[in-house]
Amino acid sequence: MEYEVNIGIEIHAELLTKSKVFCSCPVQFGAPPNTLTCPVCLGLPGALPVLNKKAVEYAILTALALNCKINRNAIFHRKNYFYPDLPKNYQISQYDTPIGIQGYLEIETSSGRKRIRIRRVHLEEDTGKLIHSGGRITGSDMSFVDFNRSGVPLLEIVSEPDISSPEEAKEYLTNIRDILVFLGVCDGKMEEGSMRCEANVSIRPKGSERLGTKTELKNINSFRAVERALQYEIERQIDIVSKGREIIQETRHWDEKNEKTISMRSKEEAHDYRYFPEPDLVPLEIDDGWIEKIRAQIPELPEEKYERYKKLGLTPYEAKLLAHDLEMSTFFDETIKLYNNPKNIANWLLVDVTKELKDRNKAINQTLLTPRMLVELLTLIDEEKISGRIAKDILPELIDKGISPRKVIEERNLLQITDTSELSSVIEQVLKENANVVEEYKKGKEKSFMFLVGQVMRLTKGKANPKLVNELLRKALG
Amino acid sequence: MLSVEEVIHIERLARLKLTDKEREMYRSQLNDVLNYAAKLDEIDTSNVPPMYHILPVTNVLREDIPQNNFSLEDALSNAPLKEGGFFVIPPILGGEE
């Protein structure tokens, strides 16, 4: 039997505000435990929440970028449950009036573009962090609680179960991540927990109208894990159904080490969060003026950049690499304003600069390289003042020391040798020292020619103008 | 009338452990509360928009300016058990499950 897969994804993204969502405590990573807390985020009796305007605006901004309708009257609800990382015993969240509803995101799939519907985008607060002695939740004899994260604004983005494969899920997730990063509302680092993901999965016989029983996958901590956890879970479900057994609706935990999903609780009581309107917060009224002001702040997103880059003559591959990298595309956009050869710039950024960045494990904006410096470097090549080889050689100095290319080549005397007599004498020397190679060339071995060019370049430390060397060498070999 | 199963469900949600006698007592008391509130059902509210808040006020917002004037000592001052700046709590799983 052939099966159809339905995957819905729930994303939690920590917003990059300076302060928490309901109190003024700083949002900051790596601070000593419980030093970023106050009566509000510790849930002390009598403390009252006050909503952070920026967090609301980030939520509206994201909802708009995901093509959502905005709820004009959005209110907050209490979601009630007990857990030690939740000091108030309820989480302030949104229920039937989320900030954004009925949006969508288009993704690229093996069978063309596909629209994934987004059910809701809502604002809530993050919980504290638990550390279990022994590192594991089971068998530990005590736990430690840090409330620095308690009250950090979280954006929840829930898709409809429109995703049909692990590959599509990964594509959806990376697209959402890129949009969040480009909007500047979240840093999108799954491995560090600033973006988290849960997936619900079900299968059904192909053509069947009704969705199958779903399981919910948790503990998916990387983009790679998303794909693999889903792959495993789909195979597990197909195996069960094809043996005539039934899927149990449950929460399953992705075990990264053993690469499988395991049931979290066998006897899980149905969720009963007893949502009710949060009496400590007044309703939000979001009017057209506010929405349009925020809409005007949506920057060019990866998808639009991609299309624009292709029109500039980049290959789809180059365009995609650049368009989905905020720092690189910003740098690229600055550079094309100064130098009218986008293809050349893309090449340098994606090959040589990327290699240097990888060696340093840095983003381009964390180096001293500027668009102006890159343009100067490319212009020097265009003017045949230096060869591409030399340009590559001095690139690290631009990146690490921020010295202008012109200055580097002057100081290190790297200007290209275009003086015919100087080159001719070098060529003469090379021909003399490699008489046997010359002999081979004359017998028709074209490769020998390249060897001789290489020798000239070596003797001139790469400074010889390659075109001139070719010309002069051909002439000399008669 | 609220069923015993419903009382047990509420009991679990509130992390309580009641005796049969207590359960019967709460069942009757909760029932009275529900009946009292049910009086509201007698009024036709189909044309009344839901009131989410008693104050006719919206959009009370704070600018995103961080402030930190609550010390670690303050934060931990009510903790029965603390260590290295953390609240220390009993293990989370076990016992109950």
3D structure, described in words:
The complex is a heterodimer of chains A (478) and B (97). Chain A has helices spanning 53-65, 166-183, 223-242, 288-295, 302-311, 316-323, 326-336, 342-360, 371-382, 388-401, 405-411, 420-433, 435-442, 447-459, 466-477; strands at residues 3-14, 51-52, 69-70, 73-74, 77-80, 90-93, 100-109, 112-125, 129-132, 143-146, 153-159, 195-205, 215-220, 251-255, 260-263, 276-277, 284-285. By secondary structure, chain A is an alpha+beta fold. In chain A, the strands form 4 sheets. Chain A has a 9-stranded mixed beta sheet with strand order 3-7-8-11-1-12-13-14-15. In chain A, strands 6-5-16 form a 3-stranded antiparallel beta sheet, with no helix packed on it. Chain A starts with a strand and ends with a helix. The mean pLDDT of chain A is 89. With 97 residues, chain B is mostly helical. Chain B has 3 helices and 3 strands, in the order H-H-E-H-E-E. A two-stranded antiparallel ribbon of chain B has the order 2-3. The two termini of chain B are 30 Å apart. At the A-B interface, strand 2, helix 1, strand 9, strand 10 and strand 17 of A face helix 1, strand 1, helix 3 and strand 3 of B.
Secondary structure: elements and pairs:
The complex is a heterodimer of chains A (478) and B (97).
Chain A: E1 3-14, E2 51-52, H1 53-65, E3 69-70, E4 73-74, E5 77-80, E6 90-93, E7 100-109, E8 112-125, E9 129-132, E10 143-146, E11 153-159, H2 166-183, E12 195-205, E13 215-220, H3 223-242, E14 251-255, E15 260-263, E16 276-277, E17 284-285, H4 288-295, H5 302-311, H6 316-323, H7 326-336, H8 342-360, H9 371-382, H10 388-401, H11 405-411, H12 420-433, H13 435-442, H14 447-459, H15 466-477
Parallel strand pairs in A: 13-14
Antiparallel strand pairs in A: 1-11, 1-12, 3-7, 4-17, 5-6, 5-16, 7-8, 8-11, 9-10, 12-13, 14-15
Helix pairs in contact in A: 2-3, 5-6, 7-8, 7-9, 12-14, 12-15, 13-14, 14-15
Chain B: H1 4-13, H2 20-38, E1 61-62, H3 72-76, E2 82-83, E3 86-89
Antiparallel strand pairs in B: 2-3
